[in-house]
Fold VWA domain-containing protein.
Amino acid sequence: MRLAQRLLIGGAVLLATTVTATAARAQNDPAGQVKDVAGGKPTIELVFVIDTTGSMGGLIDGAKQKIWGIVNEVMKSPSKPEVRMGLVAYRDHGEAYVTQVLPVTRDLDKVYSTLMAYKAVGGGDTPEDVRQALADGVHKAGWSPRSRNIAQILFLVGDAPPHDDYGNEPDTIISASEAVKAGIIVNTIQCGNLPGTGDVWRRICRAGEGQYFAIAQDGGVVAIATPFDAELSQLGTKVGGTYMAYGGSMGMMSGMAFRSSKAEAQKQLEGRFGLAAPATARAERALNKAINAAAYDDSDLIQGVENGTVKLDALKQDELPDELQKLSADERKKVIAGKIEERKKIRAQILELSKKRDTFIYEERQKQSTKNPTGFDQAVSEALKAQIARKGLKL
């Protein structure tokens, strides 16, 4: 055989072997993550897989109270990590839904809006479809590609064991093991003490290399109201009022209609949170708006210019907010600079007031004569501290 032919055949064999090996790695990796990528901003991705049947009402209400505080505790650290979050609500066959998945997003308002819509309904036959829920949390939650700068952590929260008679759905232990292969840690939080749940929850967290927590049926959340909550809520709404939508046409929607719909959606969001969210949650959300560089979505011009991701001069005329389109370039810059300065002043007020709020809460806790048992928020915070450090991220 000629040398050229031997080289050609050898190269083909090597290529086929490489492709096969790569495909095998991808197949074994549930998130399609083949290699680690170093560098980048520290990022925490959290997915909560939550039983939303009738017995979980207390836990769901507690999560609505505490989820902003959990996020803020991470984001206030010196490295200022980005936090992204996803949700999987689950019930069982024969209910309104088996699972509802909100993929991982940095739009925390969207996450909270989804959580606020959760109602504890149905159930009653004890086992729930934990199999499908955990599988969706691992495979359908939209995790980012595996990276050394990203800690990816899942919390399975429920009070009932899985329907292990659903043999056509992935086994929970297999799903937890696949999560670990993808770099995802799986924790379990058991609400209440239904027989059979604890043993399964412990096996799942062992397979997922996470932690197991047992908390009260109602979530065990203790929310302390403070004299600063109302003013913080008002400041949160005020900083939201500096939002300025920009962007061109999208699909059948003109640029003007797109910007108008975004601005109206933001206005309605602020109003809805003001009416429906608990006071403690509104106060924590205000703090998040002060410390989160991605507090609003990508259509917010003020955020984009302040972060340096949008160049005002590079925008087309029809992409600008309507109130800027008839202004000169210098006038536009002046308006945007004023909005940024206004936002900074409100943030400073929020931070100052939040310090007073933290002091008040600390002092109230010190007055409590007995130590409260672990609640939902404490369990999540304890796991996050240990597991983020385990991932090698410095907070």
User: Anything to note?
Assistant: The beta strands are 43-51, 82-90, 99-105, 150-158, 184-191, 209-215. Residues 222 and 246 are 41 Å apart (CA to CA).
